[in-house]
Each structure stands twice: as C-alpha cells, then as structure tokens.
Inverse folding.
C-alpha cells in the first residue's frame, strides 16, 4: 500500500518554517506498513491542491494532507476538497459545540470564523480534534483514502495516532515495513563500502542497503518493504551479525543510538555521576543529557560559567590563571573540569571553554578554538579542537566532540 | 521565475531524517526573487527521479536537486541525470585531484569509489565543492536550469551560497520577493481576524496576507512576489503601520523576533546581567541565550542543579526546606533564583524546578508541574505552571514560559 504526503502552506515554500509534519507522518505510516512514495509541499492555492491530489491518487492509494484548515481567509484546503469531491459544506453541531467549549475555557468568544471551522464537506467522516478548533476529515473514493489534517504539529500528531493510524489499519490489509540501522564509527564511507562490498553484493533482493554518512559516523540501514515482519527481522538480524564480524571494531550500536545515550546507559549501569562546566557550549551539553528520561539518576550539576567571575566563584578557577593564560586555555579548561567534578560532587566531569564567535577571535585563538577537558576519578586532561567558523556549528561540534571524548574515557 | 526543489533519499521518505535542505534552499531562492512553486521528496529510484524532473521542468524554470551523490551503490542521482540529458560520464581530473587531496589530509586512501565521484556528465558545468567529495552539477536545457547538489547540509549550503545563487542571478533577470512578518501576542487568531477584517479586505492585490498561529502568538505575514523591491517594502511598511494602529497592544515585533532575543536586546541596551538556575529545564534556558551572538555581554552564569546537593552547594538552597517542601516547590524555586542571582553576580535571574517525567510524578505534583521563579533587583516571585505531559514538551514549554515571565518583568 503506497501513500503520498502533501503539506500545504506558503510558509513552507518560502522557508519560514521547517516541515516537521511530513517526518512524523512518514514514521507513523512506515510503522504500520504503508510505503511513503512521495512527499510534496505546495502553496495555499486551490489549483495546486487539486492538481497535486489528482496526481497523488493516480500513483498511490492513500493521501495524507496537512495544513490550510485555520479560520482565516488564507486557509482554503477545506473548500478545495469539498469542490474536489463534489460535496457541499454542512454545519457539524458536534464540532461546533466542542469548539465553543474549547474557546470558552480559554475565555475567548465563539464567533463566525469559529462557526466556519465547524462546516465540513457532507461526504467526509469527521475526525475529532481534541486539541484544536479544526477537525480532521477522512474521504473515500474508488477504494482510495484522502485524509485532511490541521497543520499545527501537536493537533496533527494526536489525530494521526488516535484516528488515522487505527482507521488505516482497519481499512486496509497491510504488510510490514522493517528498517534497522547499524551505527558505525571510525571508517570513512568509501573505505567502508570497499570493505563490505562482498557482503553487500550477496544481500538478498528483499533487503535494501543505504549508507547515511555524518561527521565521524556512517549509519548503515537495511530496509524491507511490505514483508512478513518477523521473517524480515530475522533476516536483517542475521545479515547484521555477519556484517559485525567483518567490521567488529567499527560497530557503535543500532538505530538512533547517540553517544550521549551511550554515556547515559553507562552512567546508570555503573551507578556513576556526571557534572559539566560549560563556557562556549552554553548549556547545550547539559541539555543533551537532561533531555533523556532518567538523567536525574546520574546528572548532578551543570554550570554555565560564561563570566570569569562565575568560573572563579562557582568552579574555583584561579583568577590569576585566567589573567595569565586567558579564559580559553588548557589551564582554565582543566580547572573548570576539576571544579565541576568537585562542585557537582560527581565521578566524572566535562568542561568546555572556547570562542563561539562571531567576535572575540584573535590570530592566536581564532573563532572556533575550543578547549575541552575531561575529569575522571583517575585523571584530568584537555584537548584543543577547532570547531568551525559559525556560532551554531561551533556549539554543536564542541558539544558532540566533548561528549565523545568523555565516552572514550569511561 | 519559478523553481521546484527536489530532495532525494529514502531516509527522508521513511522519516529517518528531517529535510532541512529544502528550507535552506527555499530561503536562498526567495532572497533573490525566485518563487518556489513546489518542494518534493522522492526515493532513490531512477524512475521517480526522471518522472519528477520531467514534471518539474514542465511547470517551472529552475530545478534544484539534492542528494544521491555519494560514493556508494545506493547513490544513483548522477547516473540518472546523465541518462536524462543524454550525456556520458567523463572523468574530471580537477575534481579527482581535489578529492584525493581532501582525503589524504584526513589520512584516507583514494580508492575506486572516490574516483567514481570525479566522474561527471560531459554536458554539465561542474560546481566546485570545497567541503566534500561530491561536486555540484549545473545543467541547461531549453532555457531552463537543473542543478544537482550533494545532500550533506553543510556542503549543499556552501554550494548554494558560493555558486548556485550567484550563477542564477547572472543567468536570469530576477525581480524581488518581499516577505515581512509582524509578531502579535495576546489575541486569539479568530478574534484577531475579526478585528482586522476591514484592513485585510482593503489590502492591495499585490500583497498576500498569511496567519501563522503558535502558542500565545499569531504571526501575520505580508508577501509580495516578483515585484520592485523598494516599492513593495514601502507598501508593506505603510500597511503594517496602519495595522499597528488597529491592534497597538498586541504587536510584539517583526520577523523572527523571539522573546529571548527581546530579553537579549534589553539586557545589552540596559547593561544589565542575567543568570539562570535550572532543574527540570536542564540547561535549555541557558542554551537559548548563549546561542545568540553577544550573549557574553550580559549572560553571567547558568547552573543546572539537578541534584539536591548542587542546589544547596552551588545555589545556597536550604537543605531542610528541600526535605520539608520538596525540590519542586515555591520555596526552593525562590531560593534557586536568589542563589543564581548571587552566585552569578547578576541583576536578574530565572529559576526552574519541576517534574519533566516520565517518572517522578505524584497525585499532588503530577508530571509537568513546574515552579518558575524570577529574581530582579527589586523583587523575587514564583509562578506554578503545568507544562504538559511529554518530557520534551515540558522542557520546551517551561523554557518558553520562564523567559516570557522574565521579559514581562524587565
């Protein structure tokens, strides 16, 4: 069973917002065995909506549309769909009453525009939107399904999970899609491909291999589409086991494994604790750890010591050393890591101090210069790293590098 | 002049990665006056690439393609384009030597797969990729332009900025596209639309109005496509000035204005300083401020006091109060804010303490419960807020709410 995802909104085409809805829907459809053949973003134009829908229904069985369901004049999806399906708009009292209640709870008067949101094409099945004023709509024609959902991510996500996915499972006989991803590190993509060429050539036809390179990492994904789930899983497992024997030193983990997750797991398993002291990364390292459920088991404290005073007062860095070597120096990085370990009463600590830019660089210490220090129960050391030229890039790279450096020293 | 953006890769269709390339390219094209008519993501399939390219060239003048240019077997874009344009692949010595040098610098041997990356369709103009091994390619046919770029965001961005945009400006006579966005807060979308209906109805035809709702915020965007730039800007300015007089209390700012940017500007202008103490937000508030260039002028310190000891040791919270009231309490929030203000030697401080979940909630203090405290030179107060049910949602909402609470008290 194949699907097209259509996201509607000029704000996507001009790059004002990032289209995260498509990814959410892609993942949800893949989980129930629906293959996403294409994703398309178009403007708030009746002509484009009609053309795209016509084309999508020619090549796929399911079309999921998001956006253009708001109460204002720039929202035209509903009227366009009503015309497409030759259906009139009728007032749905249940939706109307729900919207009225929802607004009253927020102290907002129900007006004509809200009443308009309760008008739906007569031919559709209304999908209850418990979190917003625009209902979802389910259309069927010639054994194909078209679903229209609001573009607000939170509302769309609930409608996908609570209505669309169960209804698709009930409506179609679906096979499974299985994806598994092996994370490798330390072998460049072209060398990796060379080394595993014989294994790749011998893969059964049902499995598709993809290489996904990222800094220091190549992810290898095996996918099987519209298959019997447990058989495909067993097949992929055996192929990955064979692959592991070819590149044992490079395999880091599977699926969305991140280095911070590996540190998290290690800390929990070993009942150790962690603190961080951040200057240039500004809280980014702390937020990576604390975003993970259960981080409070080991994450004791983070200090964002942006000012020199904070470095001295909270972390116990020697003010004379800052004056002599500069805040961005090996000495200060080491003292920050030791200070974080002490102040956070923890077993391990990470510290970063660098120049995130755009200003503050010099010939000797250009923008991008970052000292990263690690303190463990047995040692404390620092590494100098140039993390690029752009502020966001520098923060992200220094964060990734620092977490990896800790991981390598656990 | 109209463009289609095509991103190629099964990893997009299965939702494994977020398509950020399309947004970057959309913004770049809009800046030089090229209208993006459609964005499409398709799989690594020669048939789909050919069909999509054919269709895109029927309705638009420029097609920008990213992805599928790596060295491995799943990368088929280049071969497909060579066939599409009836051109053979030839070895480009300049690309070959550059790739060899790039790899040698990283200590990687140049192999047959890398040599393959230097093979390009004879009919294309090669675009030098200074940051990776896959060159960009520029094709022309019947007065239309097709550009193929690597999918790695960093490499694609440099190629867009350094090659594609200057070449498009030289190749086509482009008019301007002007977007301006007014940020409003405090009036619900439907009420806002009602209140500004007369203004909206009287807008000149060249201007397109869009409503972009978000929590507590409605953004109003006026767009003019393929116009004379300064005229359109003046027209939009005068319309927004008229709008401001209709809803003076609701206008927060323009364009990508964020509340943290407003706090940042205020702190810099008033030479005041800020520190934060975070429990449940785990460094997220600090990272919002420190992500902005120039934050070091006012951001003194952040403390991620995850453990009770860190709250006491670093922030001076009273341990008995934690035992009596719990770490998630008004008392502790207030002491954290005061402690952050003191430890960071700053004028203002924000503190958060809450239950981000998924565990740790109780009947009295369910997951999502967050105390937010603000300390200023003249007062210190705390507010209780339920921030939702999902860990990421709770962190993000508590962060946004805390920054807004500070802003309202500057």
């Amino acid at each position: 069973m194949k699907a097209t995802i259509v996201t509607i909104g000029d704000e996507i085409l001009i790059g004002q917002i990032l289209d995260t809805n498509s990814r959410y829907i892609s993942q949800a459809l893949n989980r129930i065995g629906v293959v996403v053949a294409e994703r398309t973003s178009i403007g708030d134009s009746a002509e484009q909506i009609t053309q795209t829908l016509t084309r999508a229904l020619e090549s796929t069985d399911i079309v999921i549309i998001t956006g253009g369901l708001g109460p204002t004049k720039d929202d035209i999806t509903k009227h366009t769909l009503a015309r497409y399906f030759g259906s009139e708009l009728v007032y749905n009292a249940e939706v109307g009453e729900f919207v009225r209640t929802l607004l009253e709870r927020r102290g907002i008067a129900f007006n004509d525009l809200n009443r308009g949101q309760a008008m739906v094409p007569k031919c559709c099945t209304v999908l209850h939107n418990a979190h917003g004023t625009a209902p979802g709509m389910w259309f069927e024609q010639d054994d194909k399904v078209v679903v229209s959902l609001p573009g607000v991510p939170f509302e769309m996500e609930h409608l996908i999970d609570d209505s669309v996915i169960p209804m698709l499972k009930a409506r179609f006989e679906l096979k499974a899609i299985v994806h598994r991803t092996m994370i490798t590190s330390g072998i460049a993509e072209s060398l990796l491909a060379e080394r595993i060429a014989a294994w790749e050539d011998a893969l059964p036809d049902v499995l598709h291999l993809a290489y996904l390179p990222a800094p220091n990492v190549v992810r290898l994904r095996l996918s099987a589409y519209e298959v019997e789930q447990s058989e495909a899983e067993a097949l992929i497992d055996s192929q990955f086991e064979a692959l592991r024997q070819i590149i044992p030193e490079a395999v880091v983990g599977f699926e969305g494994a991140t280095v911070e997750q590996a540190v998290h797991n290690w800390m929990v398993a070993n009942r150790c604790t962690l603190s961080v002291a951040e200057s240039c990364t500004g809280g980014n390292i702390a937020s990576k750890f604390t975003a993970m459920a259960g981080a409070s088991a080991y994450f004791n404290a983070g200090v964002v010591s942006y000012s020199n005073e904070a470095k001295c007062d909270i972390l116990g860095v020697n003010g004379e050393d800052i004056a002599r070597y500069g805040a961005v120096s090996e000495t200060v990085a080491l003292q920050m890591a030791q200070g974080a370990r002490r102040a956070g009463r923890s077993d391990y600590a990470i510290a970063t101090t660098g120049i995130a830019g755009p200003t503050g660089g010099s010939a000797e210490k250009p923008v991008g210069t970052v000292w990263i220090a690690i303190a463990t129960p047995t040692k404390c050391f620092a590494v100098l790293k140039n993390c690029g030229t752009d502020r966001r890039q520098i923060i992200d790279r220094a964060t990734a590098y620092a977490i990896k450096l800790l991981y390598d020293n656990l």
Observations:
- The mean pLDDT of chain A is 93.
- The two ends of chain A are 47 Å apart (CA to CA).
- The domain at 176-254 of chain A is CATH 3.30.70.2860 (Alpha-Beta Plaits).
